[in-house]
Amino acid sequence: MPSIRFTPMPSSIAAAYRNGEPDAYGCAPEQRLSPGGYQCRHCLAPIAEGQPYLTVAYRPFPALQPYAETGPIFLHAMQCTAYDGGDRLPPIFDSPDYIVRGYGHDDRIVYGTGAVTPTSEIAARAKALLQDENIAYVHVRSARNNCFQCRIERVTAEKHLPER
User: Fold this and answer.
1) Helix (H, G, I), strand (E, B) or coil at 69
2) Which residues of 88-112 are buried (b: 16+ CB within 10 A; e: fewer)?
């Protein structure tokens, strides 16, 4: 089975939103104080009660196309460190289950890959999906609201050429 890496939204996009740049719908990020229970899509950790957070429309795809799902996400309003826990399940996952779905190299859903998956089985499901070379990456989305949580990528060992 392939090795995997949980990846958050890119730091450059998080920084742009924090600087007030428009979201995927052209709207300014909304800032509020967290009631607790919201999850940051950059550090992949909870936003503590009373902390400022942003709500933005986020499209985790490089271009508009029919399968480029866009939806609301939460983000710490202040800078946070991007999640870099490799294959460790991020702390963002506090629900009993999530939708785990594969996407092709054309950034479109690979039909038949989506499944509501118990949280404890997310990594195993992603590894199984990523055995298929037609699947470029996997998204984890809320099983109740379909909101983007994070991306899971295949980790490939870099091949080193022998020195001459």
Assistant:
1) coil
2) eebebbeeebbbbbbbbeeeeebee
- How does pLDDT run across 89-143, given as a tens digit for each residue? 999 999 999 999 999 999 999 999 999 999 999 999 999 999 999 999 999 999 9
**53, 105, 144 from 74: Cα distances, Å:** 7, 27, 16
**In this structure, what are the phi and psi dihedrals at residue 119, rounded to the nearest 5 degrees?**
-55, -40
How deeply is 63 buried, as exposed, middle or buried, from its count of CB atoms within 10 A (0-12, 13-18, 19+)? Answer: exposed
> How confident is the model at residue 159, as a pLDDT?
41
Give domain limits for the chain. 10-76, 85-155
Q: What is the DSSP letter of 13?
A: H
Question: Which H or E run contains 144?
Answer: none
Spatial distance between the Cα atoms of 36 and 20, rounded to a whole number of angstroms: 23
Q: Do you know the residue count of the chain?
A: 164
What is the pLDDT, as a whole number, of residue 26? 97
